[in-house]
Amino acid sequence: MDVGRTKVILVGNSTFPQWGGEIKDIPNVAQNMELLKKVFLDTNYFGIPNDPQHFVEIKDEASQDILLKVKHETKSFLGKDLFDRLIFYYSGHGIPGEDAKLFFASRDTIRTDYEITSVNSQRLFSYLEAFGAKELIVILDCCYAAQSKENQGDADSLISKSLPPEKSDLETENGIYYLFAAGKDNVAKFNPKEPQKPTYFTEALLNTIGRGTEPGRDYITIGEIYLQLCKEIADLKRTEDAGIPDPRPVLQGNVNGFIFCKNIKFRNQEDVDWAALRENPSRGKWLAFKKQYPVTRFEKGMDELISRMIKGEMALKTLEEKKDIDLAIEIKTVYKDIPYIRDEADSFINNLAANPIQDDKNIESAAFNNTSLFKDFSNASLIDSASGALGKDSELKPIDSGSFGTKYSATART
Known about the structure:
Helix content is 38%, strand content 14%.
């Protein structure tokens, strides 16, 4: 994936002051734009250069301004030969209009005059195709908000009539992958009660990009994005709104294999540092990782790790007070993946085992953490039993209490 030869155009309309008769604003679209910009510019996911040639934002503008800017950045763009890939994204209201054509609402859209005051998708798509990129990916997060009879057409028919004519493989090596937020139900949903969150479709898309796929692969194809996106949408249906529509792809050419983004699960420096922390954790290393990566996809694992370290240290303190061999064994087992806690419990067991047993009234206790001495054992019957089994002349041989070299490496986050 050559980001230097990739162009991204984001178009979002969240306000529709001239719609007429009702408020149709979608404040969530502003979140879509902000979060997608971060992802596209982030080198962990895309790394698109942040300059006007590679990255274009068009926010809350009038229909003609949108068309003019898209045309100038695609069909009329003088440097289009320097690009192999174009990614276009639109979020806002979609209006199924006359002749089953699809229109995109804009800041100046008047609902009764939508065919003049909104963006004709067919014209916009023709500009995108005229850019001449070998790989064109079009992502539309549209909410079909109108409710009148003329706007309740079949989405498959609307989409197919709005797309440019498909060219055969003999005519062009280019391909186009269209990804729509909704299919036959014609409604792409958002939660107006949570304007600080993205729309459902874009939230699922962001989650898909953010979670990645198998750790061994460095890139994710658009076909894989779609499959994982469907799973994310299914999760949102269960937790947020059962009426969220399923996304729908429309493919022109052999395009499933188009590279879309980097795979975050492919080991980067954050992965390496997290694996090192999990292999041999300590409070100091935990704090250092937290400082280096204040926003990390390992946040859940970080919380679980510090919780277990604190609980393990508390268990060691209890062990020092109670001098309980069974507790030591339990600590060693439960915290086997945290070496400094595991080894402390193991050292207690080894030192206890290495001490010669004299009698139940005068026992030379094993040292704990090289500082504490245990003066007595509460379970005298255990000592008597051990003494009888060993015999009067028996003596336990010293055991090396050095730490075991067992290593543990956490699996990549799923």
